[in-house]
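Bumping with the actual sequence this time:
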Amino acid sequence: MSDLFDHRSTAGYAQVALERGIDISGNGLTYAVPEELADLAIGERVIVPLGRQNRPVTGFVIELCQSTTLEESGLKHIASRDGNQISLPPDLIDLARWLAGYYCCPLGMVFASMLPAAVARGTGRTTRILVRIGESPVEEKLTHLQQAVLDAARHCGPRAWVELKQLANLAGAKSTSPVKQLIRKRCLETKTDQYVVSDLELSGLHEVPPDRPQTLTAPQRQALDQVLAHAEQGFGVHLLHGVTGSGKTEVYLQLIEVLRQRRGRNLGVIVLVPEISLTLQTAARFMARFPDGTVAVLHSGLTAAQRHAQWRRIREGQACLIIGARSAIFGPLSTVDLIIVDEEHDSSYKQDQLPRYHARDVAIKRAQMADIPILLGSATPSLESYHHATLYDQSCRQLEHELTADPGLGPKPQSASAKYHLIRMPDRVAGLKLPAVQIVDLQEERRQRRGVHLLSRRLEHELDQTLKSHHQAILLLNRRGYANYIACPDHRCGWIMTCEHCDVTSVYHKNKDLPTGGLMRCHHCGAESLLPATCPLCARRTNVFGLGTQRVEEELRRKFPSARTLRMDSDVMRNSRDYAHSLAAFRARQVDVLLGTQMIAKGLDFPGVRLVGVISGDTSLHLPDFRCGERTFQMISQVAGRAGRSRLYTGGGQVIVQSFNPTDPIIGLAACHDYDQFARREIALRAKANLPPITRMARVVVRDMDYVACCERAKALSARLESFNDQLNTRVCLRGPTACPIARIGGFHRQQIELIAPDATVLQRLLTALRNTRMLISDARTAVDVDPVSLL
């Protein structure tokens, strides 16, 4: 087999990035291009030999050249093109190379992430025969049925290709025999074509009725005009800070329509949304506004064949408007004209496995490479985006001075021009008001009330009034399961049930089908076990403490037996159809109370919702992560925005937030809908601690099943980082190695090193230096997370 690759004539040379975890600094491996592949292009997927055994592996051509400095006799030839005829547009090749470098990831792993597995496998791909009328005149006498076939072909178009079986059906033929007879008589031309077979229904998105543009409010019109004023100037990042219910989606829709009219053609547009549930709602609105078949949907909830079919539609130019979650940023559009990132603050845009990219930041980079505008929208922008879009005003400087005891600590506020263009929409559409938010003190509630109640008296009363008035309610608890704390009731014993493989408590999930009534599940490694009836140390009967969506659902059914309750969390939402059916039922008023985790907290627009209740506003407030306050504010503000989105609620609806920390300023500012004050305060605190967005951060996590080996490897890596930091004079602040907040997951001990730099350039300089010497490799044992959003 070696001779087959080594002695063929050569038409040039290609750099091929193999879809493997081989870290070669983004350059790929060099292969000779055989004469039969002389027309090979950048972006094509090919099969090449690898290793001594010449194992056939797939990869992407990232560069072509006519000469090489390598010894030609030692080069292998590309075996063939990929059989599924896959190629990526050149801009995605450039984006992949940047992404591999910035996020310290092998280039082949980036391509493996860019290309959906269904496309790589060719799921649903089949061959069909297409026919059309031939150019030569028909001279032979035809039967009545044969003539009907020709008439049907002419009706489809003089030179239009029609699938063979479809043409027979159009002519009223019971078989394809008359079509094949015409082919033999050369009255019809044929060609073979490969296509993807998938069901027509896209998880509830088929047959969406058309929709017309709405009349814009003054803030919407101003926002649209501001984006349009810069849209023709090429690359620019526009941050649309609009309160919940201000009509950001309508601005997106009309922006696309205006740009279409200006340019006289369909636009290549990518619209990112963070959750599958939002994908369904957003895609439905875009399909209603653009019913011309140009909308494609990409998300993990599709079947493999659907995903392949949608990807092919985009690549072949049949669809040019992509709606999807994180990976949709890699949509293979030949031309991209506009990118929109809705709910840009959402942590779901960050991938937690290799490559650990942030879809929002990748979207900004793709827009920069294409020299096009990008629009980021959110009611609660990430502090990174807000910091880029605003300058420190006098009040922020004063607040920072008050919070910072030593003015020499931390970088000073930037005084240069803002990096992003900030656009504000401070009001809801149709004159609606933001909902009134009431904070309930759960400490006081427990002192005045016997028993265990997850719903406070105030929330129970408002929920009862809402149900009696035939309105709807949304209840949020960002914790699934029944209880998160199983322990011995004797404090002298002190036994607490933890996961056998992780340093976290196991979560109890009720299941009536099990003899113990439920099971214990670790939400980090997935390990399961039966609920122990007694303490393993002292044999006392175990107690179940804490709360989860299952337990709230149980209390709702007990206190409001006539209410139609629906729970939405990852335990019951298995695929996109579950999302679609659940949201459709709630929209159709077949559900009175929607209970769920953060997947129901943002973006959803249901006009029947009068009441929103936050069961526990403290769920993430005190986690060992500097972003916990930001997440808490965003979650409360976002879910509060689901209330009062109808003219029926002139007061804006009602929101009740239950908290054990009712005086916490973060919860108070969320209740007042005061994002600007929260952002100024939080950024000032971050400046004092020298944390993002003032600085840039990377986190390296070393994993090993042996604790001593893990610590030794982490210390050795830290020493190398220190050495290169001194040699390069990058002045990156290194913290660690220390144990991660969750020190063991899935049996692996975890040690972390944090790198904090004044800007991304300095940070990348240090990481690249170590990567080039192969002293820092992202693999199963070492995770390099650039711009982390979670530090657990």
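The tokens above came from a reply further down the thread. The CA atoms of residues 437 and 655 lie 5 Å apart.
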